[in-house]
């Protein structure tokens, strides 16, 4: 199993994305977080929905995931936030070492 992972989180706006980003970086739960504006299409409570969101791409370690998820859940305004962990199977050795060194 990989020691590194990418966590995807969608936020309703830039302010909430910035708040979550700051908290994760200050607590050393993430090494790098990228923001991307996206259009989301989904079914929620039996209704077809479409919304503009901010997607966070969070680079972290598997060791940090449980605390990272708890921090996001505490700060996120959605009842059921998207928090998806994807393993990083391979990557540039120097970059992965930086991720490891940047997280607690």
TrEMBL record:
Similarity remark: Belongs to the CutA family.
Protein name: Divalent-cation tolerance protein CutA
Gene from which the chain derives: cutA
């Amino acid at each position: 199993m990989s020691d590194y992972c990418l966590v995807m989180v969608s936020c309703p706006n830039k302010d909430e994305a910035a708040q979550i980003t700051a908290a994760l970086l200050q607590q050393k739960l993430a090494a790098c977080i990228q923001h991307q504006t996206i259009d989301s299409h989904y079914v929620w409570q039996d209704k077809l929905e479409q919304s503009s969101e901010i997607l966070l791409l969070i680079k972290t370690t598997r060791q940090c995931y449980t605390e990272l998820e708890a921090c996001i859940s505490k700060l996120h305004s959605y009842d059921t936030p998207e928090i998806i962990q994807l393993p990083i199977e391979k990557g540039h050795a120097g970059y992965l070492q930086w991720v490891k060194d940047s997280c607690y």
